[in-house]
Design a protein that fits this description.
single chain; mainly alpha; Rhopdopsin 7-helix transmembrane proteins; three-stranded mixed beta sheet; globular; G protein-coupled receptor activity; cell membrane
Length: 307
Amino acid sequence: MENDNSTIVKEFILLGLTQSRDIQLLVFVLILIFYLIILPGNFLIILTIRSDPGLTAPLYFFLGNLAFLDASYSFIVAPRMLVDFVSEKKVISYRGCITQLFFLHFLGGGEGLLLVVMAFDRYIAICRPLHYSTVMNPRACYALLLALWLGGFIHSIMQVALILRLPFCGPNQLDNFFCDVPQVIKLACTDTFVVELLMVFNSGLMTLLCFLGLLASYTVILCRVRGSSSEGKSKAVSTCTTHIIVIFLMFGPGIFIYTRPFRAFPADKVVSLFHTVIFPLLNPVIYTLRNQEVKASMRRLFNQHIA
């Protein structure tokens, strides 16, 4: 028995989204259809922005990067989850689990910071229009992009470093369909109170502060444009409203998951499903559907290819 307790866990068993085969089949079909329709849409957004010389403003530069980040993010969880739906044994290696966790927080942290950058871009464009071309020049845009990628990497590597220090020598069943911090920490065969506090500080506090800061910034912007009926101001309100919708979709589930003690709640799996699979694919589409310039460019691109 003592020897068994000292065994190092080499793999984790994923219990999945649900144990009902009927529900699994239904979710599998719905997510597969959603994935095959929306994912190409994200790549179409990237192609449209890169191929249209009229979409060179910083707003479209960052929108293209958002589409790329979200498309990449969707590859971390969704494909494996779809495979697991039709597999009898849902197993992920220890290294595979850590890798999945790293990229989940690397791209997720980078996307959160990208939304902050996009809010800054809108603030300068609406509240300081005379300084916009000076502040948001191409060099500054690439510097901001590099900074958000670096910020996502630092955030993720801190998560992974804390997990790698934990011993796993007993239970290896993860009550979820992917590897994430709350479930993995609970399987460590040591006291994890301090680690949980550090994780909540790293993920939860950062998520909450970004969310509140973004809401405050867009409130300021909307207050500046309130009462104006000009076309430019109406466009600004529409753009900011779209950003606010995406902020709630991005940060709402993250706040629910990471800003509380790591205890299981009945809604955890459903929230995680929307957070890791559904919302990331929807975010760029929401931006595009409310942006007349991108939609017009897509129509021109489509007409060129069928002409």
